[in-house]
Please model this.
Amino acid sequence: LQVNNNGVISFDEPIRQYTPDPFPLVDGHPFVAPYWADVDNVLGGDIFYRQTTDPVLLEDISRDITQYFPKSPFTATWALVVTWDHVAYYGSTSEKGNTFQAVLTTDSKIFYIILNYWDIQWTTGAASDGDAETGLGGTPAHVGFNSGDDTNFYNIPGSQTDAIINITTTSNVKVPGRWVFRVDDFQVTGV
Model:
């Protein structure tokens, strides 16, 4: 796994591109895009990640997944939690920051992605033709996941549009700011 500065978690190799492309990308590179955009935490914010087998956290994750996917009972045995905390955008001349998180989890047979959004204040940085003061305009962030083929991918509604700034109010599991997917046998609930 690669935790990329640009709001992407990739497999095998890093994703260096800051201006997002729409899914599906058929380049053979699977990745999760919690908020693929011009993140620049040198200008502000932090990126934290950890792998965990902490039983308390895994119990919380398992309870949530089983609630959202009741036909597939799930007991998590591992999770990767990545948080982009109040991260700035490239070329920023403001104090704006975005806070979002991805949780990848498995029981070694079934795999889920949970995306959480707490505070989204910008959609685009200067590398994607965004405004340096507002963090808006240009090519807005892309959110979802891409399997690397043209079959298994998901674009969260509003991706690469100005509406992505409202992701904290949207959901597929009736929890504002939360999106959950089963990705080993692709399933999206609640859409």
The first helix runs from residue 55 to 68.
